[in-house]
């Protein structure tokens, strides 16, 4: 899906400039100063030559003029030094804003929905996303920074133009000709500039994507002996990238060289005409005036050349914005269907979908969000405290009702796959098991319920109130989820369990015991401070799953959602985990008893579990058997026995 509307590049750049306006102005001022300082030697040169020919009105000796010349040079060195600092800070702020907003938008998407760009059939691989964060962000950063250089150059070009006009108006008019030619050339080249840039970015994206996949699958590559084939593919992608990058860069260089030479030829012609004037003595052109004209002409022509390059750069930046916006709006083709029910009133609705921010246009990328970067003096602004799960009027869970829940994977890619017309009710403290054959839609059902995939039809009611945005609603302390393949970060075990949550060691210990991870932890020399390695690779599959379960338990959520714990746990460990967890539950116990005190509320979780294991099926209050994404049977174990394989 393409964005609903494209915002003009100038508007986007303005939003970015406005984000750090003071820094931008400081940087622009410094660079104007840096660029303007060379203008002073021009005046000194004029005075110097006029002094030599006795036409100067200044009463300065040649030595004083030379000293002034050197002082100007030194001042420029100092300004360049400071300007480098402001420029680096400004550049970093600009790309950080884009990267922050891109990441925030990606995190706002339904987490399990593949990223498929418009006009692409394959989802974007994780490694490919790097090229959006790196190349595209850098491209836009270059363009924003380019504006203050164009602006600085422009101011001096205008001043220089005025000086040139004061010397000779006729001659100065010739300067405008290259400007017209530059605008025409960039306009004509626009399509090609953009196409070459699009193709080269895509080729880079494929290379980073392949590298990402390679590193993710090193073991699989080794055991399959596929090293040569995988490297061949990398070579092939690199070769494709080389070809399109060369084309893109050669074209940009060619364009720059055409613009530069156009300006140079124009300058040459103007100088030839000026020399004629001087030789014929037709104009009141002194030798000093001629030196001045030559000197200031270069400011104007350099600006024209710079402007041409900037216009071409902006065309390439449009491609970067287009790519980033396509990524954040990727595959949003399935919008949640409208409910058949009349519009629910405020007190029957829980959490509104996020409609405040424009997520469908490039503006989302330049939204002014806080970044908490160190300032120019290296002072850290301090990070805001992390949001802690809040207990609100939605707690505790009495009843969760799901009606007509439907999600169909993109028909083009997978006809009739998904879940269809799913209904069920979870009562407080109950255990519901979803079972069914491989591929019957169990994981899809959990994901759609939790908002990790956008439902296309159906409603979810939490205590009789409609949940409008499951993705933001089904989070702790309302709900917690352990997927089939849990993700851990390369931090310590403690950091992985808490993920920013404030809990004391007693709560942590309790959660670890509940997850049957206590015996494993006792064998770890560094206990909770054990570094688990990237993706938790220093833990066994079973440890990883129990660590993820402990992460879920420590949040003491009302609804616990498990996707097949048995995939990495042996029968005994899993049975132990269930017996510990289920002993916490009091099915049917009214929450009103517990809700008297929110803080001391006894934890009586409601469980929704995908499993095949008889242990858990025996304990279930309700079993749902799925087949081809539909409910085939449901009830107690006795009711559904004949449907279980
Ligand atoms: N991203 C996707 N695009 C297209 N089809 C998909 C996608 N993910 C899953 N499917 C298909 O949807 C169906 C349901 O998949 P799902 O993972 O929900 O099944 P499951 O019952 O959880 O399977 P398992 O027991 O193996 O975990 C399967 O046929 C699967 O191939």
3D structure, described in words:
The protein is of the alpha/beta class. It has 3 domains: 9-328, ABC transporter transmembrane region fold (Up-down Bundle), CATH 1.20.1560; 393-477 and 559-592 and 601-645, P-loop containing nucleotide triphosphate hydrolases (Rossmann fold); 479-556, Rossmann fold (3-Layer(aba) Sandwich), CATH 3.40.50. Helix content is 54%, strand content 10%. The strands form 2 sheets. The protein has a 6-stranded mixed sheet with strand order 7-8-9-4-10-11, with helices on both faces. Helix 2 crosses helix 5 and helix 9 packs antiparallel against helix 10. The protein is elongated, with a radius of gyration of 34 Å. The chain starts with 8 loop residues before the first helix and ends in a 5-residue tail after the last helix. Residues 333-343, 352-356 and 592-600 have low confidence and may be disordered. The chain binds adenosine-5'-triphosphate. Adenosine-5'-triphosphate binds at residues 114, 409, 413-414, 417, 436, 438-444. Residues 114, 409, 413-414, 417, 436, 438-444 line the site of adenosine-5'-triphosphate (ATP). It is a multi-pass membrane protein. Its main location: membrane. Residues 400-644 form the ABC transporter domain.
Please give the number of β-strands. 11
**Distinct ligand kinds:** adenosine-5'-triphosphate
What fraction of the residues are assigned to beta strands by DSSP? 5-15%
> Can you count the helices?
20
The order of strands across the largest sheet is: 7-8-9-4-10-11
If you consult CATH, what is the topology of the largest domain?
ABC transporter transmembrane region fold
Regions with little confidence, pLDDT below 50 for 5+ residues: 333-343, 352-356, 592-600
For the termini, the CA-CA separation is: 41 Å
Keywords: ATP-binding, Membrane, Nucleotide-binding, Transmembrane, Transmembrane helix
Region (Disordered): 332-359
Domain ABC transporter: 400-644
Protein name: ABC transporter ATP-binding protein
